[in-house]
Write a sequence for this structure.
């Protein structure tokens, strides 16, 4: 069985134009990997009619040990 966790990272800068993550997502991925999590996807939902986004979401999974 698997479990999932999600990490939301807000973006800074002009919305949809030259925006960058407020946190270093590379470091976050390494931090989660050290705890046994595997990156599944980086999700960037469009939340305006122009398709821009204000955040990205990192999706991680890992196996749950069953007793």
């Amino acid at each position: 069985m698997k479990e999932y966790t999600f990490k939301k990272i807000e973006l800074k800068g002009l919305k949809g134009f030259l925006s960058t993550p407020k946190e270093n997502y590379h470091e976050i991925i390494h931090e989660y990997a050290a705890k046994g999590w595997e990156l599944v996807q980086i999700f960037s939902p469009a939340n305006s009619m122009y398709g821009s986004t204000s955040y990205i979401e990192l999706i991680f999974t890992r196996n749950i040990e069953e007793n």
Q: What stands out?
A: The CA atoms of residues 13 and 19 lie 4 Å apart. Strands lie at 2-12, 20-21, 38-43, 55-63. The chain has a mean pLDDT of 89. The chain has one domain: 2-63.
